[in-house]
Design brief:
eight-stranded mixed β-sheet, alpha/beta, ten-stranded mixed β-sheet, UDP-N-acetylmuramoyl-L-alanine:D-glutamate ligase, single chain
């Protein structure tokens, strides 16, 4: 499922109308009918409910007139308000307004604050409100009548359905640009838009459903859109099962450099996650003084005590680490190593010698942000897993700019550093050096706790060591990690779950991915039916 910016949707509409020859009025008809069909799925007793349809003066309003006509024909009690005048309408919107009026739909024009009390009373009494005020073309803050109306809608107890986008939302920005409808359900057309997927704007969209309005897939492919919703079909290697005659040496050997005084938990979580992800062998290297803790807790992971007097990674450890790299298939550096000067020197010396795929997480990224490059002497696959704070330190980007649009800066950084970047957030963005990027829709707020990122780093590194292509490892690790969090929250609760609880649920999550990949196809965000899939495991 591709993700389209507003300019891409305009071009897609243009190609479909002008070159493919599907008239705009047909696309509008398809859009309106799809909205009614999806509304009926979510609101089975829709015909018995009082519905208010708010239409704007553009094509989004035209969709609203189609919706009104179909609901009217089904006998639904629906009231239509046009914020503007029928004389302002053009093209397909005017055609559909005229048709609606001819069959008996009453369209009340609202052109001044004097008419607003009528709308307010209708909104207050409505069971369902259809928001068809503005769609993907909006790039300005709404004021006046529109802003007032949005406030009244948001204050109502009605179930709110937004058409294409919640009105007031800019399709391209992930932060609201002004007063915005808070929808329970958003039915968007053709392709999802960034603001519907990425927080904080996505919170205003509620459940998002992508409606097929007959835009040819060949037209979508012509645009060469680089963004997609991440689905299981992007990492087919996770679907494969082991042959009966295999041995551990066939699934790679991961070396992990993690931990420091007070942060051995990060090392333990990352190492356990790597082993659970299917790596044949995992070795966790730590300063010698920390080794007793590691050996007490970990049984399936080998430990490598690095000799020396320091309890932090230091230049004294470089030689043993370089020796330990022999025969390893991947390296993970960063969870809990701290940012001391001696550790920074150690990190730079080690990274100059690496010639295997590497995952860089947490304090490794913080150290890199504190000292200029180049950090690598050899061209090796690199996966960086920053959260927003770490990414800002790496790039010096302004917080507001990053929140407004994380995709472009993350893609730019992936390109400029020739790295795979996993930008960890409520909806993580995974970017490749060629500009392609993916938005992950698995996961929940329960993952916002200490150790969750260490588990993710370990999963990605474990898959990489196992032999996954690094890009596949990043995609599979992020998706699997998020879904494991969802399964864990189901059993433990979002508030109660700990990062370590995830290890008991990774297998269930993987089986769900393998057995039911189509429920994650991006049509529904968040996805549906997870509870029913998990009930047999209770």
């Amino acid at each position: 499922m591709k993700i389209a910016y507003s300019s891409q949707m305009r071009e897609l509409d243009r190609i479909t109308i002008e070159e493919t020859g599907i008239p705009e009025v047909v696309l509008m008809e398809n859009a309106g009918k799809e909205v009614v069909s999806i509304m009926t799925d979510y609101l089975p007793e829709l015909i018995l409910k009082t519905t208010v349809i708010l239409c704007g003066p553009g094509n989004n309003g035209g969709d609203g007139f189609v919706i009104a006509r179909h609901l009217f024909n089904q006998g639904c009690d629906c009231t239509v308000f046009l914020i503007g005048t029928c004389e302002q309408l053009k093209g397909a919107a005017k055609i559909n307004a005229d048709i609606a009026r001819k069959i008996g739909v009453c369209i009340t024009e609202v052109i001044s604050a004097e008419k607003l009390p009528v709308v307010i009373n209708a909104v207050r009494d409505a069971d369902v409100i259809v928001d068809a005020l503005f769609g993907t073309g909006l790039h300005r803050q709404l004021t006046g009548l529109f802003a007032q109306l949005i406030q009244y809608v948001n204050d109502s107890d009605a179930y709110v359905v937004s058409v294409d986008l919640p009105s007031g939302m800019c399709a391209d920005f992930c932060t609201p640009i002004g007063p915005t409808i808070r929808a329970d359900l958003t039915i968007t057309f053709g392709l999802p838009k960034p603001s519907l997927l990425l927080y904080p704007a996505a919170e205003l969209a509620g459940q998002v459903v992508v409606a097929d309005i007959s835009i040819p897939q060949s037209n979508v492919e012509r645009l060469e859109i680089s963004g997609e919703i991440l689905t299981p079909y992007h990492f087919p290697a996770l679907f494969t099962s082991r042959a009966p005659n295999v041995h551990k040496g066939q699934f790679g050997h991961l070396l992990i450099l993690a931990g420091s005084p007070g942060k051995t938990g990060a090392a333990i979580l990352a190492a356990t996650a790597a082993a659970r992800s299917g790596a044949g062998l995992v070795t966790l290297a730590v300063p010698e003084s920390l080794n007793p803790i590691i050996e007490t807790v970990l049984t399936e992971v080998m430990s490598l005590p690095l000799p020396g007097s320091s309890s932090w990674f230091s230049p004294d450890h470089v030689g043993p680490v370089i020796d330990a790299l022999s025969g390893k298939s991947a390296l993970l550096i960063g969870p809990g190593i701290g940012i001391r000067d001696e550790t920074s020197t150690f990190l730079r010396m080690v990274m100059q010698e690496i010639d295997i795929p590497i995952v860089l997480d947490a304090d490794a990224l913080n150290i890199m942000s504190m000292s200029p490059g180049p950090w690598f002497r050899k061209a090796v696959p690199r996966i960086l897993t920053p959260h927003p704070g770490e990414f800002r330190r790496l790039t010096d980007i302004d917080r507001n700019a990053l929140e407004r649009d994380p995709v472009d800066p993350v893609c730019d950084y992936a390109n400029s550093t020739s790295s795979i970047v996993v930008y960890k957030s409520a909806r993580s963005v995974i970017a490749f050096p060629d500009g392609s990027h993916y938005v992950n829709i698995t996961g929940n707020p329960g993952l916002a706790s200490g150790g969750s990122g260490d588990v993710l780093a370990g999963m990605i590194a474990g898959l990489t060591a196992k032999g996954f292509d690094p890009q596949q490892a990043a995609l599979a690790g992020v998706f699997w990690h998020g879904l494991t969090g969802d399964v864990t929250a189901f059993f433990e609760g979002e508030e109660e779950m700990l990062a370590g609880d995830m290890f008991d649920h990774m297998g269930i999550a993987r089986r769900i991915i393998i057995e039911n990949p189509d429920i994650f196809n991006g049509v529904h965000t968040p996805y549906l039916n997870l509870d029913s899939l998990l009930n047999p495991h209770l």
